[in-house]
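User: Reviewer 2 asked us to show a designed sequence for the structure in our supplementary figure. I'm pasting the structure tokens here. Could you produce the per-position amino acids so we can include them in the response letter?
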């Protein structure tokens, strides 16, 4: 995995923003890329986002907890790709 860095000034500033700068650059692949969504270009053109993309942006994870047969279980958000599309605000 490639690691990127932002402007070196973030690492030399007071207060030190290096952890924030690293976190911004190291978010990992979006659900669109990870699950090879067939709508990724179309969503970009239309300016819309799906439930999986919103979850990933807000939580930084490609998995969530859901009840499966009455038991809380960690599941992938891939089933939320292309669901509940809305305009990006």
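Assistant: Here is a per-position design you can include in the supplement:
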């Amino acid at each position: 995995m490639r690691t990127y860095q932002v402007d070196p000034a973030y690492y030399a500033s007071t207060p030190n923003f290096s952890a924030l700068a690293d976190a911004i650059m190291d978010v990992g692949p979006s659900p669109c890329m990870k699950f090879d969504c067939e709508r990724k270009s179309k969503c970009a053109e239309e300016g819309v986002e799906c439930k999986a993309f919103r979850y990933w942006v807000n939580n930084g994870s490609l998995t969530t907890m859901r009840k499966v047969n009455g038991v809380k279980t960690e599941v992938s958000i891939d089933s939320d790709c292309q669901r509940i599309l809305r305009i990006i605000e």
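For the response letter, you might also mention the following. The longest strand covers residues 63-68. The helical segments are 9-12, 18-25, 31-34, 40-46, 51-59.
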